[in-house]
Structure prediction request, 339 residues.
Amino acid sequence: MGRPPCCDKDGIKKGPWTPEEDIILVSYIQEHGPGNWRSVPTNTGLQRCSKSCRLRWTNYLRPGIKRGNFTPHEEGMIIHLQTLLGNKWAAIASYLPQRTDNDIKNYWNTHLKKKLKRFQSSFPQEPPATTSFSSSLTKCINDNDNDDNNDNYHHHYIHKNDNNPSVDVDHNMAVTPPPAPPLPQPPSSSSTCYASSTENISRLLESWMKCSPLSKPKLEVGNNYHNDDDDNNNNNDNNNDDDNDNDNDEEDHFETMLSFHNNLNDNDNDNDNDNDKVVDMITTITATGEDSNEGVKDYIDDDDEGDNPPLTFLEKWLLDESTTSRQVAQEILQLPSIF
DNA sequence: AACAGTTTCAACCGCGTCCGG
DNA sequence: GCCGGACGCGGTTGAAACTGT
Prediction:
Protein backbone atom coordinates (compact mmCIF):
# COMPACT_ATOMS: atom_id res chain seq x y z
CA MET A 1 0.00 0.00 0.00
CA GLY A 2 1.70 3.10 -1.17
CA ARG A 3 1.60 6.54 0.28
CA PRO A 4 -1.52 8.40 -0.75
CA PRO A 5 -0.94 11.34 -3.06
CA CYS A 6 -0.62 14.69 -1.38
CA CYS A 7 -3.67 15.81 -3.22
CA ASP A 8 -6.27 14.53 -5.55
CA LYS A 9 -4.60 14.19 -8.92
CA ASP A 10 -7.83 14.66 -10.81
CA GLY A 11 -8.28 18.22 -11.94
CA ILE A 12 -4.90 19.27 -10.63
CA LYS A 13 -3.02 21.43 -13.05
CA LYS A 14 0.69 20.91 -13.46
CA GLY A 15 3.43 22.76 -15.21
CA PRO A 16 4.40 26.40 -15.33
CA TRP A 17 2.34 28.92 -13.45
CA THR A 18 0.53 31.63 -15.33
CA PRO A 19 0.50 35.28 -14.22
CA GLU A 20 -3.17 34.95 -13.47
CA GLU A 21 -2.54 32.07 -11.10
CA ASP A 22 0.25 34.02 -9.48
CA ILE A 23 -2.01 36.98 -8.90
CA ILE A 24 -4.61 34.77 -7.32
CA LEU A 25 -2.06 33.16 -5.05
CA VAL A 26 -0.40 36.43 -4.09
CA SER A 27 -3.73 38.05 -3.42
CA TYR A 28 -4.76 35.21 -1.20
CA ILE A 29 -1.53 35.22 0.76
CA GLN A 30 -1.68 38.98 1.02
CA GLU A 31 -4.96 38.56 2.77
CA HIS A 32 -4.34 35.46 4.83
CA GLY A 33 -0.61 35.18 5.08
CA PRO A 34 1.46 32.17 4.08
CA GLY A 35 0.69 28.86 5.68
CA ASN A 36 -2.17 26.42 5.83
CA TRP A 37 -1.28 25.42 2.32
CA ARG A 38 -3.74 22.59 2.32
CA SER A 39 -6.58 25.07 2.23
CA VAL A 40 -5.08 27.38 -0.37
CA PRO A 41 -6.30 25.54 -3.49
CA THR A 42 -9.75 25.15 -1.99
CA ASN A 43 -10.05 28.75 -0.93
CA THR A 44 -8.56 30.28 -4.04
CA GLY A 45 -10.04 27.99 -6.62
CA LEU A 46 -6.59 27.32 -8.00
CA GLN A 47 -6.35 23.99 -9.74
CA ARG A 48 -3.02 23.36 -8.06
CA CYS A 49 -1.99 21.09 -5.27
CA SER A 50 -1.02 22.63 -1.97
CA LYS A 51 2.59 21.71 -2.45
CA SER A 52 2.72 23.47 -5.75
CA CYS A 53 1.26 26.60 -4.18
CA ARG A 54 3.75 26.55 -1.36
CA LEU A 55 6.65 25.99 -3.75
CA ARG A 56 5.53 28.77 -6.04
CA TRP A 57 5.27 31.13 -3.13
CA THR A 58 8.48 30.25 -1.36
CA ASN A 59 10.61 30.08 -4.45
CA TYR A 60 9.27 32.85 -6.66
CA LEU A 61 6.48 34.99 -5.30
CA ARG A 62 7.70 35.59 -1.79
CA PRO A 63 8.99 39.14 -1.32
CA GLY A 64 12.68 39.62 -0.80
CA ILE A 65 13.93 37.02 -3.18
CA LYS A 66 16.98 38.04 -5.08
CA ARG A 67 17.23 36.50 -8.48
CA GLY A 68 19.87 36.42 -11.12
CA ASN A 69 23.59 36.07 -10.94
CA PHE A 70 25.24 34.93 -7.79
CA THR A 71 28.04 37.15 -6.60
CA PRO A 72 31.48 35.69 -5.92
CA HIS A 73 30.77 36.34 -2.28
CA GLU A 74 27.66 34.22 -2.46
CA GLU A 75 29.48 31.56 -4.42
CA GLY A 76 32.11 31.38 -1.75
CA MET A 77 29.53 31.11 0.95
CA ILE A 78 27.71 28.35 -0.86
CA ILE A 79 30.84 26.33 -1.41
CA HIS A 80 31.89 26.70 2.20
CA LEU A 81 28.49 25.85 3.52
CA GLN A 82 27.97 22.97 1.12
CA THR A 83 31.17 21.43 2.30
CA LEU A 84 30.29 22.00 5.89
CA LEU A 85 26.61 21.10 5.79
CA GLY A 86 26.36 18.82 2.80
CA ASN A 87 23.41 19.08 0.46
CA LYS A 88 21.34 20.78 3.10
CA TRP A 89 20.09 23.40 0.73
CA ALA A 90 17.52 24.81 3.08
CA ALA A 91 20.12 25.23 5.78
CA ILE A 92 22.51 26.84 3.33
CA ALA A 93 19.75 29.11 2.10
CA SER A 94 19.12 30.26 5.64
CA TYR A 95 22.51 31.94 5.54
CA LEU A 96 21.72 33.58 2.23
CA PRO A 97 18.35 35.05 3.10
CA GLN A 98 17.69 36.46 -0.34
CA ARG A 99 18.22 33.14 -2.08
CA THR A 100 15.93 30.16 -2.12
CA ASP A 101 17.09 26.64 -1.46
CA ASN A 102 15.95 25.67 -4.93
CA ASP A 103 18.00 28.44 -6.47
CA ILE A 104 21.07 27.48 -4.51
CA LYS A 105 20.61 23.85 -5.33
CA ASN A 106 20.26 24.58 -9.01
CA TYR A 107 23.22 26.91 -8.96
CA TRP A 108 25.34 24.34 -7.24
CA ASN A 109 24.40 21.61 -9.68
CA THR A 110 24.72 23.68 -12.81
CA HIS A 111 27.55 26.06 -12.04
CA LEU A 112 29.59 25.45 -8.95
CA LYS A 113 30.11 21.74 -9.46
CA LYS A 114 31.48 22.43 -12.88
CA LYS A 115 33.73 25.16 -11.64
CA LEU A 116 35.11 22.89 -8.99
CA LYS A 117 35.62 20.17 -11.55
CA ARG A 118 37.42 22.55 -13.80
CA PHE A 119 39.55 23.58 -10.93
CA GLN A 120 40.30 20.00 -10.07
CA SER A 121 41.21 19.13 -13.63
CA SER A 122 43.63 22.02 -13.70
CA PHE A 123 45.49 20.38 -10.84
CA PRO A 124 45.63 16.76 -11.93
CA GLN A 125 48.51 16.23 -9.56
CA GLU A 126 48.81 17.87 -6.25
CA PRO A 127 50.97 20.95 -6.59
CA PRO A 128 53.14 21.39 -3.55
CA ALA A 129 52.02 24.90 -2.84
CA THR A 130 48.34 24.07 -2.87
CA THR A 131 48.21 20.66 -1.36
CA SER A 132 45.56 21.31 1.19
CA PHE A 133 43.50 23.39 -1.16
CA SER A 134 43.43 20.97 -4.03
CA SER A 135 42.99 17.96 -1.85
CA SER A 136 40.10 19.63 -0.13
CA LEU A 137 38.49 20.35 -3.42
CA THR A 138 39.18 16.88 -4.68
CA LYS A 139 37.42 15.43 -1.72
CA CYS A 140 34.57 17.85 -2.04
CA ILE A 141 34.06 17.11 -5.71
CA ASN A 142 34.39 13.39 -5.31
CA ASP A 143 31.98 13.34 -2.48
CA ASN A 144 29.43 15.16 -4.51
CA ASP A 145 30.06 13.21 -7.65
CA ASN A 146 30.11 9.74 -6.25
CA ASP A 147 27.78 10.14 -3.40
CA ASP A 148 25.45 12.98 -4.09
CA ASN A 149 22.75 11.39 -2.06
CA ASN A 150 24.91 10.48 0.84
CA ASP A 151 25.67 13.14 3.36
CA ASN A 152 27.33 10.89 5.85
CA TYR A 153 30.67 12.47 5.35
CA HIS A 154 29.38 15.89 6.07
CA HIS A 155 27.11 14.79 8.84
CA HIS A 156 29.95 13.07 10.55
CA TYR A 157 31.68 16.35 10.94
CA ILE A 158 28.64 18.41 11.63
CA HIS A 159 26.90 16.32 14.20
CA LYS A 160 29.74 14.66 15.93
CA ASN A 161 30.10 17.30 18.56
CA ASP A 162 26.93 19.12 19.25
CA ASN A 163 28.24 21.10 22.13
CA ASN A 164 31.30 22.49 20.56
CA PRO A 165 31.19 22.99 16.85
CA SER A 166 34.72 24.19 16.85
CA VAL A 167 36.08 20.81 17.72
CA ASP A 168 34.93 18.82 14.77
CA VAL A 169 35.01 21.32 12.02
CA ASP A 170 35.58 19.63 8.74
CA HIS A 171 39.30 19.62 8.31
CA ASN A 172 38.86 18.66 4.72
CA MET A 173 36.79 21.75 4.28
CA ALA A 174 36.79 22.75 0.69
CA VAL A 175 37.41 26.32 -0.02
CA THR A 176 36.31 28.97 -2.36
CA PRO A 177 37.91 28.54 -5.73
CA PRO A 178 39.05 31.58 -7.58
CA PRO A 179 35.97 33.28 -8.85
CA ALA A 180 34.97 32.48 -12.35
CA PRO A 181 34.15 35.10 -14.90
CA PRO A 182 30.42 35.36 -15.29
CA LEU A 183 28.81 33.30 -17.94
CA PRO A 184 27.42 35.15 -20.88
CA GLN A 185 24.07 36.51 -19.98
CA PRO A 186 21.10 34.98 -21.68
CA PRO A 187 18.68 37.37 -23.25
CA SER A 188 16.07 38.50 -20.86
CA SER A 189 13.23 36.06 -20.77
CA SER A 190 10.94 39.02 -20.50
CA SER A 191 10.73 38.55 -24.21
CA THR A 192 8.73 35.42 -23.71
CA CYS A 193 5.01 35.48 -23.76
CA TYR A 194 4.82 34.49 -20.14
CA ALA A 195 7.32 37.01 -19.01
CA SER A 196 5.83 39.80 -21.04
CA SER A 197 2.88 39.94 -18.75
CA THR A 198 4.86 39.96 -15.58
CA GLU A 199 5.05 43.61 -14.89
CA ASN A 200 1.58 43.46 -13.49
CA ILE A 201 2.68 40.87 -10.99
CA SER A 202 5.70 42.94 -10.09
CA ARG A 203 3.54 45.97 -9.51
CA LEU A 204 1.13 43.94 -7.50
CA LEU A 205 3.92 42.67 -5.35
CA GLU A 206 5.51 46.07 -5.04
CA SER A 207 2.30 47.59 -3.80
CA TRP A 208 1.95 44.75 -1.42
CA MET A 209 5.47 45.26 -0.19
CA LYS A 210 4.55 48.78 0.77
CA CYS A 211 1.60 47.80 2.86
CA SER A 212 2.14 44.23 3.98
CA PRO A 213 3.13 43.69 7.58
CA LEU A 214 4.63 40.39 6.49
CA SER A 215 7.26 42.02 4.36
CA LYS A 216 10.36 43.84 5.31
CA PRO A 217 10.82 47.30 3.90
CA LYS A 218 14.38 46.83 2.80
CA LEU A 219 13.92 43.61 0.94
CA GLU A 220 13.74 43.63 -2.78
CA VAL A 221 10.54 42.70 -4.41
CA GLY A 222 10.73 39.19 -5.71
CA ASN A 223 11.13 39.89 -9.34
CA ASN A 224 9.62 36.92 -10.94
CA TYR A 225 9.55 35.86 -14.51
CA HIS A 226 13.09 37.13 -14.90
CA ASN A 227 12.17 40.67 -15.44
CA ASP A 228 15.86 41.03 -15.08
CA ASP A 229 16.30 44.69 -14.43
CA ASP A 230 18.87 44.12 -11.81
CA ASP A 231 20.02 40.59 -12.16
CA ASN A 232 21.01 40.74 -15.77
CA ASN A 233 22.17 44.23 -16.18
CA ASN A 234 24.32 43.35 -19.10
CA ASN A 235 21.74 41.43 -20.95
CA ASN A 236 21.72 43.87 -23.77
CA ASP A 237 25.43 43.77 -24.15
CA ASN A 238 26.60 42.62 -27.45
CA ASN A 239 28.32 39.28 -27.25
CA ASN A 240 31.37 40.87 -28.77
CA ASP A 241 31.85 42.62 -25.49
CA ASP A 242 32.21 39.39 -23.62
CA ASP A 243 35.97 39.41 -23.55
CA ASN A 244 36.18 42.84 -22.06
CA ASP A 245 33.39 42.07 -19.71
CA ASN A 246 35.14 38.99 -18.53
CA ASP A 247 38.34 40.86 -17.91
CA ASN A 248 36.61 43.46 -15.85
CA ASP A 249 34.52 40.93 -14.08
CA GLU A 250 37.54 38.88 -13.19
CA GLU A 251 39.01 41.92 -11.50
CA ASP A 252 35.74 42.54 -9.75
CA HIS A 253 35.56 38.97 -8.62
CA PHE A 254 39.07 39.09 -7.34
CA GLU A 255 38.42 42.30 -5.46
CA THR A 256 35.36 40.79 -3.95
CA MET A 257 37.28 37.76 -2.87
CA LEU A 258 39.93 40.02 -1.46
CA SER A 259 37.41 41.92 0.58
CA PHE A 260 35.97 38.61 1.66
CA HIS A 261 39.37 37.62 2.90
CA ASN A 262 40.06 40.99 4.48
CA ASN A 263 36.84 40.80 6.35
CA LEU A 264 37.97 37.55 7.81
CA ASN A 265 41.19 39.08 8.97
CA ASP A 266 39.49 42.17 10.28
CA ASN A 267 37.20 40.07 12.33
CA ASP A 268 40.16 38.53 14.05
CA ASN A 269 40.51 41.79 15.89
CA ASP A 270 36.87 42.23 16.70
CA ASN A 271 35.59 41.69 20.14
CA ASP A 272 34.64 38.15 20.98
CA ASN A 273 31.06 38.82 21.89
CA ASP A 274 29.79 38.32 18.41
CA ASN A 275 31.85 35.26 17.99
CA ASP A 276 30.54 33.74 21.16
CA LYS A 277 27.04 34.56 20.11
CA VAL A 278 27.59 32.94 16.77
CA VAL A 279 29.11 29.84 18.23
CA ASP A 280 26.21 29.54 20.60
CA MET A 281 23.74 29.88 17.79
CA ILE A 282 25.49 27.44 15.54
CA THR A 283 25.81 25.03 18.40
CA THR A 284 22.09 25.23 18.78
CA ILE A 285 21.57 24.76 15.09
CA THR A 286 23.73 21.70 14.82
CA ALA A 287 22.22 20.28 17.95
CA THR A 288 18.60 20.87 17.21
CA GLY A 289 18.25 21.04 13.48
CA GLU A 290 17.87 23.60 10.80
CA ASP A 291 14.57 25.02 11.91
CA SER A 292 16.27 26.66 14.82
CA ASN A 293 18.12 29.04 12.58
CA GLU A 294 15.84 31.88 13.43
CA GLY A 295 18.31 33.35 15.83
CA VAL A 296 20.96 33.40 13.19
CA LYS A 297 18.58 34.83 10.66
CA ASP A 298 17.58 37.53 13.05
CA TYR A 299 21.16 38.30 13.68
CA ILE A 300 21.83 38.47 9.99
CA ASP A 301 18.81 40.63 9.36
CA ASP A 302 19.86 43.03 12.04
CA ASP A 303 23.09 43.69 10.27
CA ASP A 304 21.90 43.49 6.75
CA GLU A 305 22.50 46.92 5.41
CA GLY A 306 24.22 46.14 2.16
CA ASP A 307 23.60 44.11 -0.92
CA ASN A 308 25.44 41.18 0.48
CA PRO A 309 24.26 39.63 3.67
CA PRO A 310 26.59 40.47 6.52
CA LEU A 311 27.76 36.99 7.02
CA THR A 312 31.31 37.62 8.03
CA PHE A 313 30.60 36.23 11.46
CA LEU A 314 29.81 32.93 9.86
CA GLU A 315 32.71 33.18 7.48
CA LYS A 316 34.89 33.91 10.41
CA TRP A 317 33.62 30.91 12.21
CA LEU A 318 33.99 28.73 9.18
CA LEU A 319 37.56 29.73 8.66
CA ASP A 320 38.75 30.48 12.13
CA GLU A 321 38.17 27.00 13.36
CA SER A 322 40.82 25.47 11.27
CA THR A 323 44.29 26.62 10.44
CA THR A 324 43.95 24.50 7.36
CA SER A 325 41.11 26.56 6.10
CA ARG A 326 42.97 29.73 6.89
CA GLN A 327 45.88 28.47 4.88
CA VAL A 328 43.50 27.52 2.17
CA ALA A 329 42.06 31.01 2.06
CA GLN A 330 45.54 32.34 1.55
CA GLU A 331 46.05 29.87 -1.26
CA ILE A 332 42.92 30.96 -3.00
CA LEU A 333 44.15 34.48 -3.17
CA GLN A 334 47.44 33.38 -4.64
CA LEU A 335 45.86 31.39 -7.41
CA PRO A 336 45.85 32.76 -10.90
CA SER A 337 42.45 33.87 -11.96
CA ILE A 338 41.99 31.19 -14.54
CA PHE A 339 38.39 30.44 -13.68
C1' DA B 1 18.82 29.15 -41.70
C1' DA B 2 18.29 24.79 -39.79
C1' DC B 3 19.31 21.30 -36.96
C1' DA B 4 21.40 18.82 -32.99
C1' DG B 5 23.45 18.89 -28.73
C1' DT B 6 23.86 21.15 -24.31
C1' DT B 7 22.52 23.89 -20.46
C1' DT B 8 19.41 25.99 -17.36
C1' DC B 9 15.95 26.17 -14.02
C1' DA B 10 10.97 25.92 -12.72
C1' DA B 11 8.32 22.51 -11.13
C1' DC B 12 7.22 17.85 -9.61
C1' DC B 13 7.75 13.71 -6.75
C1' DG B 14 8.45 11.03 -2.84
C1' DC B 15 10.21 10.63 1.61
C1' DG B 16 11.21 12.30 6.31
C1' DT B 17 9.89 15.09 10.07
C1' DC B 18 6.86 17.63 12.91
C1' DC B 19 2.92 18.23 15.59
C1' DG B 20 -1.68 17.99 17.34
C1' DG B 21 -5.20 14.82 18.84
C1' DG C 1 3.31 6.27 22.95
C1' DC C 2 0.72 6.02 18.63
C1' DC C 3 -1.44 7.73 14.56
C1' DG C 4 -2.42 10.57 10.76
C1' DG C 5 -2.37 14.93 8.48
C1' DA C 6 0.44 18.67 6.98
C1' DC C 7 4.63 20.63 5.88
C1' DG C 8 9.44 20.89 4.36
C1' DC C 9 13.32 19.09 2.06
C1' DG C 10 16.31 17.13 -1.47
C1' DG C 11 16.56 14.67 -5.81
C1' DT C 12 14.96 14.47 -10.32
C1' DT C 13 12.63 15.71 -14.56
C1' DG C 14 11.59 17.96 -18.77
C1' DA C 15 10.55 22.04 -21.46
C1' DA C 16 12.63 26.12 -22.96
C1' DA C 17 16.59 28.62 -24.06
C1' DC C 18 21.06 28.69 -25.62
C1' DT C 19 25.21 27.26 -28.33
C1' DG C 20 27.74 25.07 -31.81
C1' DT C 21 28.08 23.19 -36.42
User: Anything to note?
Assistant: Residues 3, 5-6, 14-17, 49, 51-52, 55-56, 59-60, 102-103, 106-107, 109-111, 186, 289, 291 of chain A lie near DNA strand B (CB under 10 Å from a C1'). The first helix of chain A runs from residue 19 to 32. Residues 126-134, 143-200, 207-312, 318-339 of chain A have pLDDT under 50 and may be disordered.
